[in-house]
Amino acid sequence: MENIRELQAYAYFFFTLFLVVILYAYILHLYRAEKKGTRNYEKYGKLALDDDLDSKPLEPQETKDKKEQK
Length: 70
Hints:
The radius of gyration is 21 Å and the shape is elongated. The model has no long low-confidence stretch (mean pLDDT about 85). The protein starts with a helix and ends with a helix. The protein has about 70 residues and is mostly helical. It has helices at about 1-35, 40-45, 65-70. The longest helix has about 35 residues, at about 1-35.
Protein backbone atom coordinates (compact mmCIF):
# COMPACT_ATOMS: atom_id res chain seq x y z
CA MET A 1 0.00 0.00 0.00
CA GLU A 2 2.90 2.33 0.75
CA ASN A 3 4.37 1.81 -2.74
CA ILE A 4 1.11 2.65 -4.44
CA ARG A 5 0.77 5.94 -2.54
CA GLU A 6 4.35 6.87 -3.35
CA LEU A 7 3.77 6.05 -7.01
CA GLN A 8 0.59 8.16 -6.98
CA ALA A 9 2.49 11.08 -5.46
CA TYR A 10 5.20 10.93 -8.12
CA ALA A 11 2.63 10.55 -10.90
CA TYR A 12 0.64 13.50 -9.57
CA PHE A 13 3.75 15.69 -9.36
CA PHE A 14 5.00 14.88 -12.85
CA PHE A 15 1.55 15.17 -14.40
CA THR A 16 1.11 18.60 -12.79
CA LEU A 17 4.54 19.63 -14.02
CA PHE A 18 3.64 18.42 -17.52
CA LEU A 19 0.42 20.46 -17.51
CA VAL A 20 2.29 23.57 -16.36
CA VAL A 21 4.76 23.19 -19.24
CA ILE A 22 1.88 22.78 -21.71
CA LEU A 23 0.16 25.87 -20.30
CA TYR A 24 3.28 28.03 -20.59
CA ALA A 25 3.92 26.76 -24.13
CA TYR A 26 0.36 27.71 -25.10
CA ILE A 27 0.73 31.17 -23.55
CA LEU A 28 4.01 31.64 -25.42
CA HIS A 29 2.33 30.56 -28.67
CA LEU A 30 -0.46 33.10 -28.16
CA TYR A 31 2.05 35.84 -27.37
CA ARG A 32 4.16 35.12 -30.45
CA ALA A 33 1.13 34.95 -32.76
CA GLU A 34 -0.09 38.30 -31.44
CA LYS A 35 3.36 39.86 -31.79
CA LYS A 36 3.86 38.58 -35.38
CA GLY A 37 0.45 39.89 -36.36
CA THR A 38 -0.92 36.57 -37.58
CA ARG A 39 -3.79 36.79 -35.08
CA ASN A 40 -5.48 39.69 -33.33
CA TYR A 41 -6.90 38.22 -30.15
CA GLU A 42 -8.47 41.50 -29.05
CA LYS A 43 -11.15 41.19 -31.72
CA TYR A 44 -11.91 37.67 -30.49
CA GLY A 45 -12.35 39.12 -27.00
CA LYS A 46 -14.87 41.60 -28.37
CA LEU A 47 -16.85 38.72 -29.85
CA ALA A 48 -18.42 38.02 -26.46
CA LEU A 49 -19.81 41.57 -26.38
CA ASP A 50 -20.90 41.78 -30.02
CA ASP A 51 -22.65 38.48 -30.64
CA ASP A 52 -25.78 39.52 -32.50
CA LEU A 53 -27.01 37.48 -35.44
CA ASP A 54 -26.55 40.42 -37.80
CA SER A 55 -22.97 41.18 -36.69
CA LYS A 56 -20.32 41.00 -39.36
CA PRO A 57 -17.89 38.04 -39.23
CA LEU A 58 -14.50 38.56 -37.63
CA GLU A 59 -12.63 36.95 -40.51
CA PRO A 60 -13.69 36.36 -44.09
CA GLN A 61 -14.58 32.77 -44.83
CA GLU A 62 -12.04 30.98 -47.02
CA THR A 63 -13.30 29.36 -50.18
CA LYS A 64 -12.21 25.96 -51.41
CA ASP A 65 -10.04 27.58 -54.10
CA LYS A 66 -8.00 29.50 -51.54
CA LYS A 67 -7.57 26.42 -49.37
CA GLU A 68 -6.29 24.40 -52.33
CA GLN A 69 -3.76 27.10 -53.24
CA LYS A 70 -2.12 26.94 -49.80
